[in-house]
Specification:
Helices cover 38% and strands 11% of the residues. Helix 1 packs antiparallel against helix 3.
Length: 245
């Protein structure tokens, strides 16, 4: 059973200049017993990228990482802040809560906050779903949980790949924990996220074309296959509570 109280993860954020490379590798974030993820509140800024742009080579190329992080993600942050600027009553709201319950967002900015807020949240989660030290098979509790809920890692991988490959247009593939503490695979369109369906994200893959087009062009399947070499399973397991069984 999930513990009733959770420690909230708030990413350390920095304001990064567009196109600025990360000078040094930083240890991949290690956390314990976390099932909540937060990117904080207004004014939002880019999360600190915990590895250099070229650290995921040859699977994700440095130029794509730089443009994706410093241009695309920065644009979501800028437009989210612009949308919320004149609404001080929302400035102290956690972004995840706003996106999970969008009815609390004024109609005049609701679409902008959903789109740009979702872009900021999803990309922040995407960066820590990967690691230069990733790609190994899941271990420990996570491996047991995958076997329990999917039958095997291979069956889970097949289901996740299918969700990513068959997502029409732009979107995301997700591994989540549902309200019954079961691992599930799902996908979302555009910048939607699983929170509104009472699903706790654990892992995500960005299948918007800007995530892979420079290196893989229209070959999304090749990008998905390569991405498994950088999956940060240690971070995924760190989200899980200590006791499931």
């Amino acid at each position: 059973m999930l513990k009733k109280s959770f420690v909230s993860l708030v990413l350390m954020v920095i304001i990064s200049g567009c196109g600025q490379s990360v000078e040094q590798k930083t240890d991949i974030l290690k956390t314990k017993n976390i099932t909540d993820f937060s990117v904080g509140h207004y004014p939002y800024s880019l999360p600190k990228l915990l590895y250099a742009y070229d650290s995921l080579e040859p699977y994700l190329d440095a130029r794509t990482m730089e443009i994706h992080y410093a241009k695309h993600h920065q644009a979501y942050v800028d437009n989210l802040n612009k949308a919320l600027k004149e609404y001080p009553e929302l400035h102290n709201k956690d972004l995840g809560e706003l996106l999970k319950y969008p009815e609390q967002i004024p109609q005049a900015i609701r679409t902008a906050v959903i789109n740009h807020g979702g872009g900021h949240y999803n990309h922040s989660f995407y960066w820590i779903s990967m690691s230069p030290d990733g790609g190994k098979l899941p271990q420990g509790l996570l491996a047991k949980k995958i076997d329990q809920d999917f039958g095997s890692f291979d069956l889970f991988r097949e289901k996740f790949i299918d969700a990513a490959k068959t997502k029409f247009g732009s979107g995301w593939a997700w591994l989540c924990l549902d309200k019954n503490n079961k691992l599930v695979v799902t996908s979302s369109s555009n910048q939607d996220l699983p929170l509104k369906d009472d699903l706790q994200p654990l892992l995500t893959l960005d299948v918007w074309e800007h995530a892979y087009y420079l290196k893989y062009q229209n070959k999304r399947s090749d990008f998905i296959d390569a991405w498994w070499n950088v999956v940060n399973w240690a971070q995924v397991e760190a989200y899980l509570p200590e006791l499931f069984f």
